[in-house]
Amino acid sequence: MPRYFIGMYQPQGVVPSDEILGPVMRDMGAYMGELQAGGKLVFSNGFDQSAHPSVVTSDGTSIDVTPGSYLESEIQLGGFTIVDVEDEDEAHAVATRLAEITHLPIEVRLFADRP
């Protein structure tokens, strides 16, 4: 089956209150359980908001580590899910459900064929 990346984007530095985030996390957990029970979930997790990203680059002779995201933006990747599903329509169905739960933009990308 094709494997898809489902990315969830959120405003940078915005952490919803517990009364807003609590029901979202409950519903996300239930939905991830459904995907896992159906054999479709490969992996899913959000990022620790207290940890700061960094970018590692190399020009072939030296390594540079720069604090912050690769692209400057007010929106950041907040977490991701990897699923094995039949096709793009099913991947979009997963993304649709996540958008309904979180009210956040959700990106869908097909992974390259695996050997």
TrEMBL record:
Cross-referenced InterPro entries: Dimeric_a/b-barrel (IPR011008), YCII (IPR005545)
Protein name: YCII-related domain-containing protein
Top-level taxon: Bacteria
All copies of domain YCII-related, residue ranges: 10-98
UniProt family annotation: Belongs to the YciI family.
Classification via Pfam families: YCII
